[in-house]
Structure to design on (114 residues):
């Protein structure tokens, strides 16, 4: 797996949909999106919606966990512990990747491996 993208979130379901979409729509890379929620009400239903709208496939996996944590940085660390990609990144729940962003990053890592 090329990338692990970690998103720690709390009470941001409205914004998180665009974030998930921007990661799920990346092409030319294999990746996982690790979403670590701090206990948002309704997160289970949101996760079901995301699995239906953006199903996982050979190049895209998503892990969505909702559990109480000790704030954003604890959530990030919990997500990073689950990450399996060779390259790890963090994406806030109110941010999105542009199309082709991760493929461009992967090319740079391949061209300049050190």
């Amino acid at each position: 797996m090329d990338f692990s993208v970690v998103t720690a979130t709390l009470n941001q379901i409205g914004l998180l949909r665009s974030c998930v979409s921007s990661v799920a729509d990346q092409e030319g890379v294999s990746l996982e999106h690790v979403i670590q929620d701090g206990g948002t009400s309704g997160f289970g239903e949101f996760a079901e919606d995301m699995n239906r709208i953006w199903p996982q496939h050979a190049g895209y996996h998503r892990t969505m966990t909702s559990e109480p944590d000790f704030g954003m940085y604890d959530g990030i660390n919990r997500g990073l512990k689950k990450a399996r990609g060779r390259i790890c990144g963090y994406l806030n729940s109110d941010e999105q990747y542009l199309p082709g962003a991760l493929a461009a990053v992967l090319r740079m890592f391949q061209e300049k491996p050190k």
Q: What stands out?
A: The first strand starts at residue 3 and ends at 9. Strands lie at 3-9, 31-37, 60-66, 87-90. The chain has a mean pLDDT of 96.
